[in-house]
Amino acid sequence: MCYCCVLLCLCVSLLYSIHLVLVWLVCVSEVRVISLLFSLLLAMANAIIMPVSGFLARPNTQMTPFQLPIHNHSFHSVSSTSQSTKAFAVPRRKAMSLILSSFILSEVGLALAQQSPVFREYIDAFDGYSFKYPGNWIQVRGAGADIFFRDPFVLDENLSVEISSPSSSRYLSVEDLGPPQEAGKKVLKQYLTEFMSTRLGVRRESNILSTSSRVADDGKLYYEVEVNIKSYANNNELAVMPQDRVVRLEWDRRYLSVLGVENNQLYELRLQAPENVFSEEENDLRQVMDSFRVNKIAI
């Protein structure tokens, strides 16, 4: 009996360890590692449960699993009932394994449902800015921006930082761009210039959704601009007849910009997301926007 108690305690400890490990892995967003480790831990748990269930399953009298002993001198109806349920009896070993598996799966689901997104902080002390970004995003080098991160699964969802050249212009405040509405027009114009295409039949539709200003906890003024841009193209640009040139939507994206001034330079944090996923990612993207700061460079 002591051996049984020890093994049961080991099982409880193992389940708690599994819970802690799974929650930690969810925090670092290592999904594939979670899957592999989950399979390994489940196999280990079953290996420990088997001896325990085998020990518990050794009866003192000959009985089928979960069947009550039958005495001839009392309650003859029990005999017929036990005979009818004999076919549905489940061995204790399998029952305990099923219970263990259900418990672990429920713990994993609860951890995945309750865990909030994890953010990491990027600090560029040399250029003078910082922001937070989703922990599972990856950095892409050579993208043309000062820094560039993107979602590894939704490639059109990304962020970047652009910095003006101190030799071309000297900014004292973000208000040098004018009010937020004027800054929004300049941001949209810059986007459209960058997306200009030489292909035949390409058409862009754009719209400024919102412009605003805020003073962050560092005491600096920031502008926020939100725009939508759609790109249309013909499926057959060289067709002679108009009916053969069918216009189709190429992409539909939301662009979020945060503008700040420090070190006589204009800093712009850019966020991009497809419209069909923006509603799901909006909270995370706005947290990134709120975290953007421009800092004085130490000389």
Automatic annotation (TrEMBL):
<dbReference type="GO" id="GO:0005509">
    <property type="term" value="F:calcium ion binding"/>
</dbReference>
<dbReference type="GO" id="GO:0015979">
    <property type="term" value="P:photosynthesis"/>
</dbReference>
<protein>
    <recommendedName>
        <fullName>PsbP C-terminal domain-containing protein</fullName>
    </recommendedName>
</protein>
<dbReference type="InterPro" id="IPR002683">
    <property type="entry name" value="PsbP_C"/>
</dbReference>
<dbReference type="GO" id="GO:0009654">
    <property type="term" value="C:photosystem II oxygen evolving complex"/>
</dbReference>
<feature type="domain" description="PsbP C-terminal">
    <location>
        <begin position="119"/>
        <end position="294"/>
    </location>
</feature>
<keyword id="KW-1133">Transmembrane helix</keyword>
<dbReference type="Pfam" id="PF01789">
    <property type="entry name" value="PsbP"/>
</dbReference>
<feature type="transmembrane region" description="Helical">
    <location>
        <begin position="33"/>
        <end position="57"/>
    </location>
</feature>
<dbReference type="GO" id="GO:0019898">
    <property type="term" value="C:extrinsic component of membrane"/>
</dbReference>
<keyword id="KW-0472">Membrane</keyword>
<dbReference type="InterPro" id="IPR016123">
    <property type="entry name" value="Mog1/PsbP_a/b/a-sand"/>
</dbReference>
<keyword id="KW-0812">Transmembrane</keyword>
